[in-house]
Amino acid sequence: MQGCFMWLVLMAGGVFVIITALRWFEQTAEAVDNRWWNKVALLIVMPFAVWFFPSRVAAGRPFPVAHHEPVAGFGVPGAKPPPRKKTGTGPDPAQVAQLREKMREQGMLGGDEE
């Protein structure tokens, strides 16, 4: 148990050191380009000080995720359902006649209703 935990700590520490080295090279290059010699001296004496300065390289998404809009009609207050699209094809007249006949048989429609 303790050996496994020790390997995880060592791996995490290694990743931290590698990221620190990457940031160190970025920060020292920027400091030399801008002639910030006090920052160069600080980074040479104490390399882990790179974490005190903001990085110019952005990690992750370069732009934010689009705002999520909930689907209309599913309990969202004030949401209106979108209008239906007209497909141009209507219901099958034979099926409509069959359904009306079945409804008449069950007593849902009177004899004169259409």
Architecture blueprint of SSEs:
Layout: H1 2-33, H2 37-45, H3 93-105
In brief, what are we looking at here?
The chain is built from three helices and no strands.
Structural overview:
The chain has helices at 2-33, 37-45, 93-105. By secondary structure, the protein is an all-alpha fold. The protein is built from three helices and no strands. It starts with a helix and ends in a 9-residue tail after the last helix. The mean pLDDT is 83. Helix content is 47%, strand content 0%. The longest helix is centred in the first third of the chain and has 32 residues, at 2-33.
- Mean of residue pLDDT values: 83
The total count of strands amounts to 0
Given as residue ranges, the uncertain stretches (5+ residues, pLDDT < 50) are: none
Largest sheet data: none
Counting helices, strands and paired strands, the structural category is: mainly alpha
Task: Give the SSE order as H and E letters.
Answer: HHH
Shape: elongated
In DSSP terms (H or I, runs of 4 or more residues), the helix count works out at: 3
Helix content: 40-55%
Question: Distance between termini?
Answer: 79 Å
Strand residue content: under 5%
Radius of gyration: 35 Å
